[in-house]
Amino acid sequence: MSSHADRDCLIDVSVLPKDIFSRINHEFYDVVKFVAGDLAVKILRIQMINSAGKLLNTPDVFAFLRIDSEEIDAIKIESCFKSKNGQFIIKPGIKSGVSYLVKLLQETLKEERELASNENNETHQKYINNDFIDKHPLLKSKIEWYQVNGLNNTNKTNAFLTSFIDNLISNCTRSPNHFRYDESIKKFAICLYVLDGKQVYEFIRLNLYESIPNLTTVCELINKSDAALSEAEFQFESLQQFHSRFAFCSEDTTEIIRKV
Predict the structure, then answer these.
(1) Cβ neighbours of residue 138 under 8 Å, at least 6 residues apart?
(2) Cα–Cα 20 to 30 A to 96, which of 60, 78, 128, 187?
């Protein structure tokens, strides 16, 4: 495998929300914190870079650290090493975190432009006739289901099912490196993994390919959330928040999981 392919495998745009380019201020900074950490948020906030568009249009996010100003001294101390000659050197982890975020945004923007371009070049495919629908039972069933769903006003009841189906079909048109998942799908994936363990999770993922994130992504979501648990660490105070009277456990084995 080439080095270019290796780099592509490391860029998982599914960690970004679909509306990343419309988020500003706190909503944008929440994503920055999730991907690059707290210090990255401080570095962007002090420069008033409060959206993905502004970040991509900033040639050098760290250029301001070369300014001699008391306002940024605190950030310099947190985010840089100071050499004996007084030079400030950005800590590698912070630099790589911001760089990774920028690459994710660039890849997402590239993907959106490609999709828009394909739609413009294939506008004739937007007009679907009955013959085309009859030749594709899945499409016909989905249209009928949406019609019934709308007539019976069951949108809220079937909200997750609708999101699951849309997400699955959308990913069918993408390459594995570009799979995207709604927030509801991510939460479902975490619950499935916690309640049923790796065996069941991988069995479902392999047989419903593109429907839920891979295990690496799920583990990252768990580790970066407030719900992460550690072995032999009890959090009894959290039970009051959920009023749960049940205890759950899951196994972690290394057996080979096969497709059906």
Answers:
(1) none
(2) 187
